[in-house]
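Ops channel
N.P.: pipeline sanity check, posting one input/output pair.
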């Protein structure tokens, strides 16, 4: 199997969480990494963790001008682009009747438009390397849940966009796959999830726990790698079995 050492990956939303964990995993496997985020302070701190080996890209993926600038900076610096991980996203939860159009658009412009814009800009570079695209969707894109009308819909659209990318870009050797994380033990989740919510998730997930950022990153890194060279158009739920259980009745479990 071909080695991925020396290949280049650009990860959006890379200043923290799943994006940063993925960057560390791929750097350890020999990838050269470009970290893109719009949070200046968090990105500055994240970059220091790579001993000057990572490229910092301060951009907002919802800005149509940002994508070509970011891709150009990456290819100018590294000379190529082998994988794009579209991880940047916003989580804004609220009832349907309280989600006005401005709120809807704030979610869509990052979660969906950003994936579209970054991928469009990256296609010429990915053609040269027969590269990979990994879009981070969500379990909320596979199953409906309360308070997620904008978020869940945006992630469902990312899943369909991934399939379109796979269908249309395969002739160039470009692969496109989506990862749908289930509940993940991030700092943000732990800050807003009450003990009742945590207990309910544990009951509903067959593995009886939240996932970790690194566990999601392992799936992303695999899909970017040469080990997944014949995998495209796939939607992989990394969710501890959460999607497989449907609604579930915890009281019936032993």
């Amino acid at each position: 199997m071909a080695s991925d050492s020396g290949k280049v990956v650009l990860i959006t939303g890379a200043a923290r969480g799943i994006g940063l964990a993925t960057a560390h995993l791929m750097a350890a496997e020999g990838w050269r990494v470009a970290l893109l985020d719009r949070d200046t302070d968090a990105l500055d701190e994240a970059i220091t963790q790579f001993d000057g080996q990572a490229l910092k890209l301060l951009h907002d993926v919802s800005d149509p001008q940002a994508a070509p600038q970011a891709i150009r900076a990456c290819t100018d610096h590294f000379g190529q682009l082998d994988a794009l991980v579209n991880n940047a996203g916003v989580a804004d939860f609220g009832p349907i009747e309280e989600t006005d159009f401005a709120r809807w658009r704030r979610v869509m412009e990052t979660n969906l438009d950003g994936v579209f814009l970054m991928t469009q800009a990256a296609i010429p570079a990915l053609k040269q390397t027969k590269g990979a695209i990994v879009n981070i969707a969500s379990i909320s894109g596979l199953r409906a849940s309360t308070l997620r009308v904008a978020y869940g819909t945006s992630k469902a659209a990312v899943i369909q966009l991934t399939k379109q990318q796979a269908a249309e870009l395969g002739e160039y050797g470009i692969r496109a796959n989506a990862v749908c994380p289930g509940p993940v033990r991030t700092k943000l989740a732990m800050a807003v999830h009450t003990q009742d919510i945590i207990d309910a998730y544990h009951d509903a997930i067959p593995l009886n726990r939240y996932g970790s950022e690194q566990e999601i990153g392992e799936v992303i890194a695999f899909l970017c790698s040469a080990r997944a060279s014949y995998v495209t158009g796939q939607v992989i739920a990394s969710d501890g079995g959460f999607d497989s259980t449907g609604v579930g009745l915890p009281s019936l479990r032993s």
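N.P.: looks fine end to end. The mean pLDDT is 93.
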